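Sequence and structure are no longer studied apart. To make this concrete, we show below a single chain and its fold as tokens.
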Amino acid sequence: MPGPGPHLIYTLGTGSALMSLSNGRLTPHHCVVYATNAFLGPDLGSFSEWLTSTLGIGESLGSSMMGFIHHPLYYILILGFPLSLFYAWLSRVAAQSNFLETFSGVALSRRQCILLISAGSLSHFFLDHLFEENGHSEIYTWILSTGWWKGRAPVNPDAVIVVGFLCTCLLGAFIYIHRVKPGKSVRSGGSQSIKLIAAIIFFYCLWCVSQIYLRDPPQPQLEKRQI
């Protein structure tokens, strides 16, 4: 399945496009909550499984969390409500402090956050299922960072650092672009977002190419679970 990079790029890209088309009715608050729940949301289950297996503590609990949270519907049912409270509070703080642009100064409601959490979960599994079983070929699985290992997948710290850095830059720069600033138009922020996403895609692809063609043996840019 795709690593966190494609999830974040896909959702921030579609969110930025919708933000421009809606002339600001879809705000950066919507985009950040949507992208966060597609990028990190259901993979909290995968992360818990990896962490417990790595530490050798509570592996059965980690596997249970993987089974329940890494699911398009269970993620919404289990974590949707508590996360909606958190994101609504965070949006209110960001709006009141003029940290992030919003429409007419109105923060996201709990209902909106639930819908965005649901959209993020469904978008996450849209990419996962789109590129999973039918891509069982050597070059395709490397590109998609799936890795068809039997048993535990190896951990590559350099991949975690590079991909984590790129994702942090993408999300952080997106928030910086859409900070509250007098005289700034929605279209200017949208065009800057597209340039940012294009730059991250370039560096992300450069990293993937280096791992496929310059390493012997090649390694995936980031693996997320055992097969």
In short: The radius of gyration is 18 Å.
